[in-house]
Amino acid sequence: MHNMTRHICLLSLLLSSGNGLLPVQAEMLSQESTQQEAQESKTEQSDNTTSAAATSPMTIYKVVGKDGSVTYTDKPQQNAEPLAFDVKTQNVVTAAKVTPPPPAKPAAPKLKYRVVIKSPAPEATIRNNLGELTISAAQPGATKAPIYRLIFDDAPLASNSSGVFKLSGIHRGAHTYKVELTNNTGKTLASSPLQTLYLHQASALINN
Predict the structure, then answer these.
(1) Are 163 and 136 in contact (CB under 8 A)?
(2) What pLDDT, on the 0 to 100 scale, is given for residue 20?
(3) I need a surface site. Which of 30, 96, 114, 168 has the fewest CB within 10 A?
(4) What is the H or E stretch that residue 83 is in?
(5) Which residues are registered as beta bridge partners of 195?
């Protein structure tokens, strides 16, 4: 549009000059118009070249050396293999899928063991000349241990699965005792309170 306006102005100037009037002005205007056209044409070509370069694929050359080494370059070389890449190509690395850890298992409820002595009663007095007595224990809780262990006078005396202990040859006097619950490896799981009993025996002198 700008060039057309210049041509119209130039034509008008030539027509108004008549018989050769204003020749210098007309020539200068003509040269200026020609230069402007050339500049605009050059700018348009440069824009087209830039646009084409931006949208054209990038060429990379693969060069294999005599020692077998491989080099990549953007400059053409002898015996180079051209590799075309789309300019829109992007290196996309897919992140490894992380598997969430499994939910923590709830802690197993702690088992509660209980053992009580059914007989004899605390501070009981037992009369037996042969030193015989029976200690009986039981587990009132829902959780049961496999083994009862009798601790008599601060020492393990016997173990069984019934909780009933029949003793003989016990000397007269005061004796302490308790019953423990254990597993198969001997670990103590529960214990009854420590109790005391008194064993009495008749004197042979009195009977005579």
Answers:
(1) yes
(2) 45
(3) 96
(4) strand 81-85
(5) 177
Q: Which residue has the tokens 């490896």?
A: 185
Biggest CA-to-CA distance, the chain: 183
> Which of the listed CATH numbers 2.60.40.10, 3.40.50.720, 2.40.110.10, 3.40.50.360 matches domain 116-207?
2.60.40.10
Per the structure block, which two tokens stand in for 141?
């809780």
Chain region(s) in the chain for CATH 2.60.40.10: 116-207
Burial of 79 (0-12, 13-18, 19+ CB in 10 A): exposed
Half-sphere exposure of 38 (CA within 13 A, CB side): 6
The count of C-alpha atoms lying within 13 angstroms of the C-alpha of 27, restricted to the half-sphere facing its C-beta, is 5
Q: Is the pTM of this model over 0.90?
A: no
The SS3 assignment for 73 reads strand
